[in-house]
Amino acid sequence: MEYNTARGKMLLPEYGRNVQNMIQHAMEIEDREERNRASQAIIVVMGQLNPHLRDVDDYRHKLWTHLFVMSNFKLDVDSPFEIPQEEELQERPERVPYPKSKIRFGHFGQYSQKILEGSKEMTDEGEREYMTNSMGNFMKKQYLVHNNNAVENNVIADQLSELSQGELKIEKPDELVSTNLLLKTLGLNQNQNQNNKNSNNNRGRSQGGPRKKKTKQRSK
Q1: For residue 145, what are the domain limits?
Q2: Is there a domain that residue 135 lies in?
Q3: pLDDT, tens digit, for every residue of 7-51?
Q4: Distance between the two ends of the chain, CA-based, in angstroms?
Q5: Can you state the percent helix, strand and coil of the chain, rounding each to 5?
Q6: Rounded to the nearest 10 degrees, what angle do helices 110-117 and 153-163 cross at?
Q7: Closest by alpha carbon to 80, among 39, 119, 115, 108?
Q8: What is the pLDDT of residue 59?
Q9: Looking only at Cα atoms, what is the longest distance across the chain?
């Protein structure tokens, strides 16, 4: 009896032992044209065994790459694509640097913080006033996205001043857009009411509606 431990190593087990044997047989064919025809037939079988690869861009290119990988890059055939090099496939991708910038208030986002930090370069008073009002209302809206409750305008004013390093100040916080209007534009009120209705309906269905009182029959 032949055990798997005594067989050759399968480089891509998802294609199965038979495909690995077919590739090994193709490598032993001396005639180049016959070897090319055998490789084409193997590609067809590989595509049938893994139909999900058809959803991948250039899936035939991927199949040919797998063919050379399973042959340990020793199969000498005419490929319609550039034959991959073993060294290129074994190269590890460069490590992506983790962002080191700190966000003071996560619910406002990094870009809001950068915009406010760059406000010190603004010299025109009209632009500074427009920036202050626009960012104040935007920050209040972002706050309500994460906390769909009431928010104090003074809190938004203080946090805007902190993020802009004191360059921008909201002189009249009460003039910010009202919380109810922002919630309405965000659709939070409508969603809450709808959720409440759905929960009440589901509760009624689960309970089977109002229960009727059972009447006991007296035995005569």
Answers
A1: 106-188
A2: yes
A3: 667 788 888 889 999 999 999 999 999 999 999 999 999 989 888
A4: 84
A5: 60, 0, 40
A6: 70
A7: 39
A8: 86
A9: 104
